[in-house]
Amino acid sequence: MAxxxxxxxxxxxxxxxxxxxxxxxxxxxxxxxxKHHMALLAGGMTYLYLGIAILSEVAATTFLKLSDGFSKxxxxxxxxxxxxxxxxFLSLTLRSLPTGVVYAVWSGVGVVLIATIxxxxxxxxxxxxxLCGMGLIVSGxxxxxxxxxxxxx
Length: 153
Prior knowledge:
Layout: H1 14-27, H2 34-66, H3 73-93, H4 99-121, H5 128-147
Helix pairs in contact: 1-2, 2-3, 2-4, 4-5
């Protein structure tokens, strides 16, 4: 147990409670809700890893177009590095979330971001069918994350 005078965070205050739980976990003492708070922290890291994987994949795909068939060194290097980072963080995400859910979110968000970047920066035209299709992809990702029990396994 910690020394009585060392608790700087009151356990009954919102953010202080979370910090106290983390402090207790780090110094080896138990706090009644420390397991709950650590699970929330771990879950947040999982989605952070997924976000990094998505953004890295989007950057790599954007630079893949700019690499002109890997004939330009700098865009080629960014492409390879981006995919390496994307797959590394995707693998970390798969430690905690089901493969199908992760892939649905990763690919769905990636498609929409890539299409948006191509439209804004590369003058790609998007017709109504493409916009509707991307809307359905976003809807599917939202449904999986909000209503599917598979996303919490």
